[in-house]
Amino acid sequence: MINLRSNNIGPFFMKHYSNLEIKALDKFFRLNLINSCTGYKSANLIATRSSDGFTNVAVFNSVTHIGSEPPLLGFILRPQTIPRNTYSNLKETGSFTVNHIQKDMIGKAHQTAARYEKEESEFHHTGLEEEYLDDFYAPYVRQSTIKMGCKYVNEYKIAENGTILVIGEIEHLYFEEGIQMPDGWLRLDDADTVAINGLDGYALPSLLDRFHYAKPGKELTSFLYI
Known about the structure:
The protein is of the alpha+beta class. It has helices spanning 19-23, 27-37, 85-93, 106-111, 122-126, and strands at residues 5-9, 12-16, 41-42, 44-49, 55-60, 64-68, 71-77, 95-100, 130-131, 140-141, 146-158, 163-175, 195-197, 201-203. It has a seven-stranded antiparallel beta sheet. Strands 3-13-14 form a three-stranded antiparallel beta sheet, with no helix packed on it. It is globular.
């Protein structure tokens, strides 16, 4: 029997799961718990096109910054136990796009998680629109206000669970000009970019503050962009 202990720590009433208790949970309960406990994640649509012309677009909550010189990003693909069109397409063609999800497109974006056949484009089934820019092979999502065209660089298999970390280099970056601050930084709340809580919860973050570079012995100061 699972013992769900509660600890009164500071001002909070805390529920506690041990590792053994987590592993004993119902599969879907555990999936929701562990996917949400790590915090808000980026919400993106990754779009690809196969070598024979079939397009694919799918929602991902794992896109993350890898480095800025060169400009690299990464994302996690689940184990290849079933066909993964995103993976096969980007390996065939070497190209994919990363498109932010805005608040007015969350339903369409989430529907891309459904398992369509390779010949059935999620663009067609969800109402998302393909867009081709600067002769880049993979399609962008027209509705997205921040989008990146990327080339496949490398991949690393994560032995512990069979997932794959895909590394891409940003070759093209598009965004609405008004969201860029004088130092280059993009204010994502002005773009209505959403975040994902777990696998299926969409949230609209708002900027609280932004700080100058932190140094020991130096008073922390705010940019006061709000």
